[in-house]
Amino acid sequence: GSEASGESLQASERHPGGEGEREPAEPAAGGLQPGELPQLATRLLAHKIQSPQEWEAMQALLVLETCMKNCGNKFHGEVGKFRFLNELIKVVSQRCWR
């Protein structure tokens, strides 16, 4: 991989705040508002991380890692909430006690 891959955002693609956070300007499919996307994304990731299929769970963890590196404070805030962290604890406790 290239070192520049994480730094490849052009200035025109960055959030006006300069933090690299990107949100669509228009409502997303399904009538969601841009502010609702981090909550939906973390809910879907938590579900996939709990998949009994190891490949699917690992892919979800890779997506989570990518989002943590590239998304902004709204996504980070959702990941830090008890709701999401509790779902991760379920996965770890299931795998440790088998």
TrEMBL record:
GO terms for biological process: Golgi to plasma membrane transport; intracellular protein transport; protein localization to cell surface. Residues 12-25 have a biased composition (Basic and acidic residues). One of its GO terms (cellular component) is trans-Golgi network. PROSITE patterns: VHS (PS50179). GO terms for molecular function: phosphatidylinositol binding; small GTPase binding; ubiquitin binding. Residues 1-11 have a biased composition (Polar residues). It comes from the Eukaryota. Residues 38-98 form the VHS domain. Residues 1-35 are annotated as: Disordered. Transmembrane segments: none annotated. InterPro entries: ENTH_VHS, GGA1-3, VHS_dom. This is VHS domain-containing protein. It comes from Poecilia mexicana. The lineage of its organism: Eukaryota, Metazoa, Chordata, Craniata, Vertebrata.
